[in-house]
Amino acid sequence: MGRPSISVERRKTILDAFERCVLRLGLTETSLDDVAEETGLPRSVVRYFVGNRDDMVALLIDRMIERVEFSVVERFAERAEPSADTLVTLLFDDVMGDLQINQIAAELWHVSLRNAAVGKRLHDIYSRLVDELAEKIAKLDGTRRKAQCRMTAYTVVALALGTTNLSAFGVLPKGVAEARKAALVLLEAS
């Protein structure tokens, strides 16, 4: 396989720098100048390869989606038939356990209050996660109706998301194991 084009490499370098800036400064405080300084590239080069700040935010969201999708695909590729335990591990460890993604998502939630396009993208990410999980739940128990699978998936995602966020604030740090058990019970319930 050949070497990636300079355009692909530059875009990756710039997006990596954008992520570092967002993690350090916050999304609303990160400017194109900050990203340019972080990369050591002129601002005009940053704009050439990724566009304006809104374009960078959209690319950052795309990156988050790719990471979550990769985690989901990789985890389920390991097992022919997903188990409830695999689903809980996937949600709590692989998807919600990525602290960098969680911090960036928190920044995006804040921005989504004022930016409908960002809000729509976040809605799409979490809806897709719920839909994917509902599909896996349906495979675990073929007797559940689609609406039941979706509600269970929503509840388990909300539990994993809430536990992750509250743990970041030091609320119930020992409660993660209990939340995982509760998610497992929900997935195994018929």
How would you sum up this structure in a few lines?
By secondary structure, the protein is an all-alpha fold.
Largest sheet: none
Just name the CATH architecture of the largest domain.
Answer: Orthogonal Bundle
β-sheet strand percentage: under 5%
- The count of helical stretches stands at 9
CA distance, first residue to last residue: 48 Å
Radius of gyration: 19 Å
Give the helix proportion (percent range). Answer: over 70%
Order of helices and strands: HHHHHHHHH
What structural class do helix, strand and pairing data support?
mainly alpha
Overall pLDDT confidence = 84
- Gross geometry: elongated
CATH class of the largest domain: Mainly Alpha
In the CATH hierarchy, the third-tier topology of the largest domain is known as Tetracycline Repressor, domain 2
**Count of folded domains:** 2
Low-confidence stretches: none
Oligomer: single chain
Give the beta-strand count: 0
